[in-house]
Amino acid sequence: MKHKTRKPFPENFFWGASTSAYQVEGANLEDGKGPSCQDVKEVPEGTSDLTVCADHYHHMKEDVALMAEMGFKSYRFSIAWTRILPKGTGEINQKGIDFYNELIDECLKYGIEPIVTMFHFDMPAALDERGSWGNPDSVQWFVDFARVLFENFGDRVKYWLTINEQNMLTLVGPVIGTLMIPEGCTNVLKEVYQQNHHMLVAQAKAMVLCHQMLPEAKIGPAPNISLVYPATCKPEDVIAAQNFNAIRNWLYLDMAVYGIYNAIVWSYLEENDATPTFAPGDEEAMKNAHPDFIGFNYYNTATVEAASDEEVLADAVADQQSGSIEAGMYKGFRNPNLVTTEFGWEIDPVGFRATIREMDSRYHLPLLVTENGLGAYDTLTEDGKVHDPYRIEYLRQHIAQIQEAITDGAQMLGYNPWSAIDLISTHEGMKKRYGFIYVDRDEFDLGTLNRYRKDSFYWYKKVIASNGEDL
Ligand code: BGP
């Protein structure tokens, strides 16, 4: 059903875009910043390192001015844990506090609402050495970090996101360079879900702390949510889709919103001897936490079919958005109704609406789009232009579906696509670009680092100015 009359976007809709610290800032060991897991990981051949990125650390004012020129109402960025606490715990790095103070003030100067992600794939290396999320103390490390953030920035930051894509950390951690599995671990699934459990408790406690310290602020999770379709109407395929929906999506939101473990996932963990151990107080902590909204990243849907008990895990797990497999549970299926990006991710704008509807009916909370977008090869022309009609088309179609979802009755807070500016991809280097602003550098050649407005920059400016009417 396409609505005959679509409801308008709300008046205070957060039109903006997103980045994350380790992918955009550069200056990765400058001004007292400690190394994160991203800075010490082995960089696969052919992938740019993270020392410079888009050099946002040194171009911050220029970058925020460009966002303001587009008319941004919000900017979602993450705070690098190791810029604030170089060793992850203990001593505070004042220069790190100063940088984010300046960034926040610069946003507010232009009336841009800062939306802050507390953790985006960048565990302090010093904490990795202490067992990372596998250490039960990680819950307290995160809560202590949260306190420092709330104390220093809570007077101006009103929107907080806890952990970016915790579900992707758990499902494809190695691809995005995170989640440590100790050597010699004999039950990897159990270890992974124990780490996941610590993150769930850490998130719950951070939400409670936020509400105690900053009664006016709002906080929510930021998983990557892709509705999962069955490959056919075969009942076994429907069960497979429910399995993957539970494992990929609902585990994270059922816990964040209702404080309960999703039953399908729990039974799957039981079967594999992989249920996490609860520390005293965990259950209560999870029940006590209530997000004010749900932040979510959406790139596409997933499709699965039934998988036999013999099918093995390993080979099919590629990255955040590509098909995966779990013996007896589900098996990725290429949806023949969808085209893909140059990097192999399916494109499904209508699935965006379907995903929003599903979340709305399961959780009844306001929804904030914290990522969405098209990774592509862009070319800077000799006269300093970037013609990216493919990106405009992708965004146009997705925004149109948000409006359909609003008309369906979903409460949408904002749209913050990935990414405000070109930055380093999780595992495809600089060549896979998402930004409205082009950064003149290549995979290895640092170029001039000059900024250029892409065609999508002017288009998005017009979309924002018309509050989504002029697509
Ligand atoms: C999400 C991450 C981002 C980001 C984006 C695009 O999973 O939250 O950090 O990079 O996906 O992914 P990629 O860089 O792999 O194209």
Write out key terms for the chains shown.
globular, TIM Barrel, 15 helices, alpha/beta, single chain, binds 6-O-phosphono-beta-D-galactopyranose, four-stranded mixed sheet
Write a brief caption for the model.
This is Glycoside hydrolase family 1 protein. The protein has 15 helices and 14 strands. The protein is α/β, with parallel strands linked by helices and 471 residues long.
What does this structure look like?
Keywords: Hydrolase. This is Glycoside hydrolase family 1 protein. This protein has 471 residues and is an alpha/beta fold. The protein has a single domain, classed as TIM Barrel (Alpha-Beta Barrel). Helices cover 39% and strands 13% of the residues. The chain contains 15 helices and 14 strands. The chain has helices spanning 21-24, 37-40, 56-70, 81-84, 94-109, 125-128, 138-153, 166-172, 188-213, 235-258, 263-271, 282-288, 349-363, 389-408, 455-465; strands spanning 14-18, 74-78, 113-119, 159-164, 218-222, 228-230, 294-297, 302-305, 325-326, 330-332, 367-371, 412-415, 437-439, 451-453. An eight-stranded parallel β-sheet has the order 5-4-3-2-1-12-11-7. Helix 9 crosses helix 12 (282-288). The chain is globular. 6-O-phosphono-beta-D-galactopyranose binds at residues 20, 23, 164-165, 168, 224, 297, 319-320, 371, 375, 418, 425-428, 432.
